[in-house]
Amino acid sequence: MKKCFAPLEGITGFIFRNTYHEYYGGIDEYYTPFISVNQTRKLKKRELEDLLPENNHVPALVPQILTNQAEDALAYIRMINELGYNKINLNMGCPSGTVVAKGKGSGMLRDPKALDNFLESLFYGLSTMFPSPIKLTAKTRIGIRDISESEEILSVLAKYPFHEIILHPRLQKDFYKVPVHMEVVKSWQKVLKVPLIYNGDLNTPGDVHNLCHTYPDLEGIMLGRGLLWHPSMLSGNVDSCTNTEEIADCPEEDLRKLKEFHDTLFNRLLEVMQEPNNVIHRMKELWFYLGCNYPDCEKQLKNIKKAKTIDDYRIAARSLFCR
Questions:
Q1: Crossing angle of helices 255-272/310-321, nearest 10°?
Q2: Maximum distance among all alpha carbons in the chain?
Q3: Which element (helix H / strand E) includes 269?
């Protein structure tokens, strides 16, 4: 079963992806944070750097785009394809209020007819404008306000030749706190004629095992926050997650490796990013997740949160690791 690393904006750029793969591995595909498509039809410098093949040393990278305009999407897909990528993901799941207000991300699910028109234009362009096939995938939620919306959204998606569908079985209004609606997974598997990848609340090895045991016909799983909370969760070149021997229920976090991973990531960010404050900010975002591995270090974690300079951050992190 394929294992994918979900994108998290501000954290999982190419430096993080390379470092994670070097220290932990176990991932078959990494997804970029979404590229916000706009009418300029130009990649920003940061977006281009994140996509450049020479910057990415992972098994496979799938660029993700955020848009509700087919013509603009096709222009960006062409640019991305020219960099060597023939598999691209459409973000139909982001629940952020600012994104949804623009009718993008999970905001696309509010009007199934408009979604249908968008996909019709998009797939027509993909079939006529590109000399070799583009593998378009979608990452989606199941609706905006009510689970009853799921059926109509599914019927729209089932009309089109997606390469894969990544299903996060929550509504937009649920964000990440309401339990996932697992009751829809089997119906999506039954209706869709394309491979289905599951995403949502895979935060422990037990979650992974239980899901794979219950839904063995899934094409794969996508993990995000769970791998930030517990980076070693899928390490060890796991080939299958269908029995408990291959992924233990509660592996103890390897804190030594976590320190090495942290130090390497921090130093690489310092080398590449020009503004030290941006490095500190990015590391603090990561510690929002990593901090759960140090439940008895509230003082040290608070000092990391308060750090304003690189030296302050180094001292605070060293204090935590040497506790």
A1: 170
A2: 61
A3: helix 255-272
DSSP code at position 171: B
Q: How far apart are CA 266 and CA 302, in angstroms?
A: 18
The confidence score (pLDDT) of residue 68 equals 98
CB atoms within 10 A of CB 190: 9
**What is the reported pTM?**
0.93
> For the chain, which residues make up each domain, given as ranges?
2-229, 255-321
User: Which tokens go with 22?
Assistant: 């070097």
Phi first, then psi: give them for residue 89, nearest 5 degrees. Answer: -110, 135
User: Mean pLDDT, consecutive 10-residue segments, the chain of 323 residues?
Assistant: 96 98 97 96 96 99 99 98 98 98 98 99 98 98 98 98 99 95 97 98 93 96 96 65 40 78 98 94 97 93 97 97 86
Look at the domain 2-229 and name its fold: TIM Barrel (3.20.20)
